[in-house]
Design brief:
Two copies of one chain form a homodimer. Chain A is α/β, with parallel strands linked by helices. The first copy, chain A, has helices at residues 7-14, 18-25, 33-46, 52-59, 79-95, 113-120, 138-143, 165-179, 194-210, 227-238, 252-264, 282-286, 298-313, and strands at 64-70, 99-105, 126-130, 148-151, 159-163, 184-188, 220-222, 246-249, 274-276, 293-295, 322-325, 328-330. In chain A, strands 2-1-3-4-5-11 form a six-stranded parallel sheet, sandwiched between helices. A four-stranded parallel sheet of chain A has the order 7-6-8-9. In chain A, β8 (246-249), α11 (252-264) and β9 form a beta-alpha-beta unit. In chain A, α1 packs across α2 (18-25), α1 (7-14) crosses α3 and α10 packs across α11. Chain A is elongated and about 85 Å long. At the A-B interface, α4, α5, β2, α6 and α11 of A face α4, α5, β2, α6 and α11 of B. The first copy, chain A, binds a DNA duplex (30 and 30 nucleotides) through residues 4, 6-8, 16-20, 22-23, 25-26, 30-32, 35, 50-51, 53-60.
DNA sequence: GACTGTAAAGTGAGCGTTCACTTGAGGGCA
DNA sequence: TGCCCTCAAGTGAACGCTCACTTTACAGTC
């Protein structure tokens, strides 16, 4: 787009200096109303819009932050969370005049792919990384001098924002215990998410401990967050000599897999087996048997991450904080007291 | 981040001119291997990374495009599509060295909000707008000189990329007719999507016509794409004197609402009533009764939109094309022959 | 040997802002 | 009246890159 009006052309049109136009654009209070009005008139007469590139050059920062999200074809179920988180972050950033540049990474194939962009070129001021797991490339970004906020967990010394996984899992386990379940099966997640999964596991154990009960041994199996792995996990759990009366899957997709297995094998839910999930995805809510699950505050998670990053950019709050946002237990039709209270 | 190395400092370190460094960065073939190697060594020794701002200034374009997506709290079901579309677009853009700036708009509250950013400041070279509906602000963007590609439908004279809504709906209707259904209820979408919905309706009618049948009158009701509206629509359809034997809802969320109503009212699916949706969301696939639906090529839709936009930016393909991407009928457990073939 | 052509590298301006500093006008006060 | 102070606006450089043009070196030709 050649021939776009510049500050100098606006200045000429308004009969002031370019610096005065700059002051008007940036809301400098020292400009008198008369001059300001003249400049504003010229700006709209010429159709002037400031160039982000010019500003970036002069200020030494781009006022754009990068958002790195995982993108794994198989993990479609996290989409509700991702979209909400993104909009939360975007709105917070927009409110402070920042833009959000999106970069996707295929965790499995090439974890570093999404970072490479930021490594190669200086086009963002900081980064929000969704999902700390499997991000060995994180230290490289820090090395480059980027402020980084992780949505999720990381072992690197970075600001973290994450849901209260332990509290959420505690709430689910407590709910199931209160219904009278004792043999509670757990479908745990994959190694990439071990920090979040460990927190959820702690929550489950704490619920048992608080109820002065021992967590039943041998009722924990592992999935990889996919529907299919939940389905397989149900098979394994129900084949045990003493199968569980309730299954708590560490995400909704696996919980739906468990539910499907129950349907296929003539088990009623919640009659024979109660099922609970985690994430409160639309698939869990809108199904024929709505799932008890834990709702994350995805929008606020994104919003908060953006706030922290902006504070880091402003030099405020240089501490690498850990922010935990409460989850909410959503009790639905998939959980009920066990047939025979033990 | 002050004191970052620049082209000139790299040039000094390597004992060449800044222009030679520029040539190396941009892969100019006229640089001899010896010099190139020296420059590359200096670049990594100093940790040099080009400044996107400087390049944007000098080139007069930012090499970033904007992606505008709708964000309506109630419309969570489109998330699968959105994420896939975004990753498709992002990967295509990244492959050509472009960045993708995200902007969300709340269609209902303030349709123009997402555009304002691009109106106020010159920070992208072009725009991809997801969902043409309700975008009265589009002409303003064109007026500003942005190349725009719409994913969806628009009445403005812009490049469009959209799924084959007519063909997809045709496939569903044909499938239901082939099963023996004649009284096929349709749960249509909201006015904002009227162009897409009209295409789907044409598809349904064409299927009837091709089968030398008359579309049954009075079996079309309207929803707003939400689960609740699908639920209500089922109520209305089934209260008719001659209720449908199959219901085709124009998105999955409404189809799931229909399914729920059937469950609550003792109708078996697909025994008493067949149900089909549109979009092939995870909620439809992973439910207890997997839904027959139409899968969109969301990733390719995004990828294609990005390609077209990049071509527009290159001055190639100045035509405002309309690109249609086939959908795929996914037949699942929610559709079967009617109990009594009429 | 002088001339031309070409490939490789260098020079300097310019892109549109902001920053640090300077100028100028006007007011208050002794 | 003269001085200083304050507030509003102006001046010019700098930010880091690319573009258009120029220089240099060297080989080929007559």
């Amino acid at each position: 787009m050649p021939g776009q009006p510049t500050m100098r052309s606006v200045a000429e049109h308004a009969g002031v200096s370019h610096q005065t136009v700059s002051r008007v654009v940036n809301g400098d209070p020292t400009v008198t109303d008369a001059v300001r009005e003249r400049v504003v008139t010229s700006m709209s007469a010429l159709g002037y819009r400031p160039s982000a590139g010019g500003r970036a050059m002069a200020r030494g920062r781009t006022e754009v932050v990068g958002l790195v999200i995982p993108h794994d074809p198989g993990f479609a179920f996290a989409n509700d969370h991702l979209i909400r988180m993104m909009t939360g972050a975007e709105q917070e950033l927009a409110a402070r005049g920042y833009g959000m540049l999106l970069s996707t990474r295929e965790t499995a194939k090439d974890p570093a792919s999404a970072y490479r962009r930021f490594d190669r070129r200086r086009l963002v001021d900081g980064l929000i990384v969704e999902g700390g797991g499997g991000t060995a490339a994180l230290p490289r970004l820090v090395e480059l001098g980027y402020p980084v906020v992780v949505i999720g967990y990381t072992e690197d010394d970075l600001a973290m924002v994450h849901p209260d996984d332990e509290g959420g899992a505690y709430a689910v386990a407590q709910h199931l215990l209160a219904l009278g379940h004792r043999r509670i099966g757990v479908v745990n997640g994959p190694p990439e998410s071990r920090l979040a999964m460990a927190a959820r596991m702690r929550g489950v154990h704490r619920a048992f401990t608080d109820a002065r009960l021992e967590p039943p041994p041998g009722l924990e199996v592992h999935g990889d967050f996919t529907f299919a792995s939940g389905h397989a996990a149900a098979q394994r759990l129900m084949a045990l000599p003493a199968p569980p009366t309730a299954v708590f899957a560490f995400n909704d997709a696996m919980a739906l897999g468990v539910l499907r297995w129950m349907r296929e094998n003539g088990k009623s839910v919640p009659g024979d087996v109660s099922i609970a999930g985690f994430d409160d995805t639309s698939a869990a809510v809108l199904g024929e048997t709505p799932l008890t699950s834990v709702a994350l505050q995805s929008v606020d998670l994104g919003r908060r991450a953006a706030q922290i990053l902006l504070d880091l950019l402003d030099g405020k709050n240089a501490q690498n904080t850990e922010t935990v946002m409460a989850g909410r237990l959503m009790v639905r039709a998939s959980t009920a007291p066990p047939r025979t209270v033990i």
